[in-house]
Amino acid sequence: MPFAYYDRLTPSRQRIYRASDAIERLDLPPGFAAGADVDAIDAALRADDRAACERACQRLTDALVAGYRVPPIRVKVLAKRPSSDYGELHGLYEPEEDRMPARITVWMRTAQRRQVVAFRSFLRTLVHEIGHHLDYELYKLAETFHTEGFYKRESTLANALFAAMADPPPPPKTRAPAGQ
User: Three-class SS string for the chain?
Assistant: First the structure.
């Protein structure tokens, strides 16, 4: 079922949306072995080391784009998330422009409390932004939309990366249904 904004899209953009929505999985590239880079991101966040986090994110991203055989992405990890009336910005994808490669920016601290972001959330944000790049470069979509398919791809890739770690984090806690 399309998200509410689907009805406001032009017919050509609706076709792109449906194409994105139909792609529900994003598995790791064949022979992918970058679990150590995922571990390094976790360790850098625990150490509150922005530079080490950025290097580990770049290595992981480089390994993924090489595996998918798509153009490179430059990764920036900045300290405190920007915020305004809309809330906090977790990540930002900027497509390739002229001769500048695509860029991903992620932030490792919350805006209000300035706490280091939880590892699972941080990695999911990075994967989310990589997903936008893959929409353009791997799937050759003219636009990248937040569709159910997009979120399913993000989830399958993030879960595969968690599983590739030497010591994967426990799965997120689920809330008990109301009344229990």
Answer: CCCHHHHHCCHHHHHHHHHHHHCCCCCCCCCCCCHHHHHHHHHHHHCCCHHHHHHHHHHHHHHHHHHHCCCCEEEEEEEECCEECCEECCEEEECCECCECEEEEEEEECCCCCCECCHHHHHHHHHHHHHHHHHHHCCCCCCCCCCHHHHHHHHHHHHHHHHCCCCCCCCCCCCCCCCC
pLDDT tens, position by position, 102-112: 999 999 988 77
> What phi, psi does 114 have (nearest 5°)?
55, 35
**DSSP β-bridge partners for residue 116:** 109
- The rounded distance, in Å, linking the Cα atoms of 124 and 158 is 6
d(CA 14, CA 12): 5
12, two tokens: 């050509």
Q: pLDDT tens digits for 45-63?
A: 999 999 999 999 999 999 9
3-state secondary structure of 100: strand
- The one-letter amino acid at 155: S
